[in-house]
Prior knowledge:
Helix content is about 20%, strand content about 20%. It is globular and about 40 Å long. The protein has helices spanning about 5-10, 60-75; strands spanning about 20, 25-30, 40-45, 85, 100-105. The mean pLDDT is about 95. Strand 1 and strand 2 form a beta hairpin. It has two helices and five strands, in the order αβββαββ. It is α+β, with helices and mostly antiparallel strands. The chain has a five-stranded antiparallel beta sheet, covered by helices on one side. The structure holds adenosine monophosphate.
Amino acid sequence: MSNDCLFCKIINREIPTEFLYEDENYVVFKDINPAAPVHLLLIPKKHIRSINDITWDDEKLISGLFLIAKDMAKSQGVNESGYKLLFNVEKGGGQEIFHVHLHLIGGWKR
Length: 110
Ligand code: AMP
């Protein structure tokens, strides 16, 4: 938990946000400024600043994001049409919130 982290505040329910999925290690919610019809943020509850800061101790936590992504893609109906999974890493990589999160983006009509 980092006191000035927006995603930690959401995880701790200090900022009300509807979770599409939650378990002891993760939350998933809709991006407030969606880049596509489906745009979810998949977030480990553990505060890790960016992908630069993960260690082998986080191996299961980070790989678990992909298994949740697969399930969320199915529940959002984009598993067959396809989707993108994206980590923005640090400012130059477009990261704005410095708490690791995986974007799941899809649902385009093509
Ligand atoms: P990034 O640029 O990879 O750090 O992504 C941060 C994402 O968080 C952006 O796509 C924002 O639109 C999204 N975001 C910021 N504040 C909120 C919020 N309160 N609820 C949901 N998504 C948010």
